[in-house]
Specification:
The protein contains 12 helices and 10 strands. With 377 residues, it is α/β, with parallel strands linked by helices. The protein has 2 domains: 116 residues; 235 residues, Spore Coat Polysaccharide Biosynthesis Protein SpsA, Chain A. The longest helix is centred in the first third of the chain and has 31 residues.
Length: 377
C-alpha cells in the first residue's frame, strides 16, 4: 500500500521522522514539564498562620468519620474549625457527630435532613459546607482521608498569601501488596506529577478533592459549582480548571501535607470510580485538553513506530538509542517524582502500567459516551 504513494526509502524515512518527532515530544514532557516537579524546591513563605476552615461532606460514612475526624480535630494549628456536612445519612453518623460536638469545640456540623441533591455528587453538600465555613481559608478533604501528620493544616495553609488563592495538595492511597493497588497508586502519582508540573509552568488545570485548599471568596465570586452542577464529578478538577491561574495557584508536596485514603479493592469498584473521574475531562479548557492528550498520543505513536521500525529492520541502532534515551528520561524523572510523593515499588513496573492505561482509557471514554453515571453514593 505504501509503495502506491511513496518509494520504500521515502516510507522508511517518513516513519523514522514520525518516530523522532514523537520521542522529541516525550522528552519535552519529561524534562521541561514533569521535570519542573521532579526538581522542585519550595519557596518558603513567612506569613503568620491564618484561621482555616476544613470542609468535608459525608453520606453514610460512619466508620470513616469515627476513625478520621478525631485526627482532623486534633491538628497542630493555632485556630481552625472542621465543618462536616452530613448529607442525609441514614446510618449512625448524626449520633457520632453529636458526641464529637460535646468533646471538641472546633467542629461545626451541618445536617441536610432531606435528599435535596437533585444533581447527585458532592457539589451540593460541599457548597453548603463552604458557605457555612467561618474562615476565609478553606481546606477540603474527604471522610475517608487521614492527614499524613498533625501538621497537615500548617503545611497546606502556609502557601496562602494575598495573591495565592489556591493550593494544590497530594492525596495518597494506602500501599497494599497486589497489582490493582500498584495500578491505582501509579495512576494517582502520575496524575499528581501532571497537575503539579502544569501548575509550576503556569498552566494549573486541576486538583484533587482529597487534599485541596482555596479561598472562600474565590468560591463565592466565581459562583462555585454552578457552571458544572449537572456533572456528578468535578467538585475539585472542574472548579480548579475554571478558576486557577498562573498567579493565584501554588503547590504543596511536603510529606506532612499529604492525605492518605484506602484504595478500591476490586477491579469493578475501581473501574466505576475511574469512569466517573474521567467523565469530567471533556469539560476542561481546550488548551488543557491538548496538553493532557498530547502526552499519551505521542507515547502511542512512539511505541507503534518503534515496533514497526524494528520489525522492518531499518535504522536499528538510531531507533534503539532514541528509545532508550526516552526510557531513561522517564525513569529518572519518575524516580525523583515517586520518591518525592513517597510512592514505593512503582518505578520498575511503571512502563507496563503506562501501556495498560494507554489501552484502557479509550475504552472507558467510549463506554462513558454510551452509559451515563450520575450516582455518588
Amino acid at each position: 500500500m505504501a509503495s502506491l504513494f511513496f518509494s520504500s526509502d521515502q516510507f522508511f524515512t517518513l516513519l523514522l521522522a514520525i518516530f523522532i518527532a514523537a520521542v522529541a515530544i516525550q522528552l519535552i514532557y519529561y524534562w521541561f514539564m514533569f521535570g519542573r516537579f521532579a526538581f522542585y524546591k519550595k519557596k518558603v513563605i513567612q506569613d503568620e498562620p491564618e484561621p482555616v476552615s476544613v470542609v468535608l461532606s459525608a453520606k453514610n460514612e460512619y466508620p470513616n468519620l469515627k476513625k478520621n475526624l478525631p485526627l482532623l480535630l486534633s491538628q497542630d494549628y493555632p485556630e481552625f474549625e472542621v465543618v462536616v456536612v452530613n448529607d442525609a445519612s441514614d446510618d449512625e453518623t448524626i449520633f457520632l457527630l453529636e458526641d464529637l460536638q460535646r468533646d471538641y469545640k472546633n467542629i461545626k456540623v451541618v445536617n441536610i435532613t432531606q435528599d435535596l441533591n437533585f444533581f447527585k455528587g458532592k457539589k451540593f453538600p460541599l457548597a453548603i459546607g463552604i458557605k457555612s465555613a467561618k474562615y476565609e481559608n478553606l481546606l477540603l478533604t474527604d471522610a475517608d482521608c487521614v492527614p499524613a501528620s498533625p501538621n497537615w493544616i500548617m503545611e497546606m495553609s502556609s502557601n496562602f498569601t494575598a495573591e495565592t488563592e489556591i493550593v494544590l495538595g497530594y492525596g495518597k492511597y494506602e500501599e497494599h501488596p497486589n497489582l490493582l493497588n500498584k495500578i491505582i497508586r501509579y495512576e494517582t502519582a502520575f496524575t499528581a506529577i501532571e497537575y503539579f508540573s502544569f501548575a509550576l509552568i503556569g498552566l494549573p488545570y486541576m486538583g484533587v478533592g482529597r487534599n485541596l485548599a482555596y479561598k472562600k471568596n474565590l468560591f463565592i465570586k466565581s459562583k462555585g459549582f454552578i457552571s458544572h452542577y449537572k456533572v456528578s464529578s468535578g467538585d475539585d478538577d472542574l472548579f480548579i480548571n475554571q478558576v486557577a491561574t498562573k498567579r493565584n495557584t501554588r503547590i504543596e508536596a511536603a510529606p506532612d501535607s499529604f492525605t492518605v485514603s484506602p484504595p478500591k479493592t476490586t477491579f469493578k469498584s475501581w473501574w466505576n470510580q475511574k469512569r466517573r473521574h474521567i467523565s469530567a475531562g471533556k469539560y476542561y479548557k481546550f488548551k488543557h485538553k491538548i496538553l493532557i492528550g498530547l502526552y499519551p498520543a505521542s507515547l502511542i505513536v512512539t511505541y507503534i513506530t518503534f515496533i514497526l521500525l524494528l520489525l522492518l529492520g531499518k535504522f536499528f541502532y538510531l531507533v534503539l538509542a532514541l528509545f532508550l534515551i526516552r526510557m531513561a528520561s522517564q525513569l529518572i524523572i519518575f524516580k525523583k517524582s515517586f520518591h518525592r510523593l513517597l510512592e514505593k515499588k512503582l518505578l520498575l513496573i511503571s512502563p507496563l502500567i503506562e501501556v495498560f492505561f494507554l489501552g484502557i482509557y479509550p475504552v472507558m471514554g467510549f463506554i462513558n459516551l454510551v452509559f451515563k453515571q450520575t450516582k455518588w453514593k
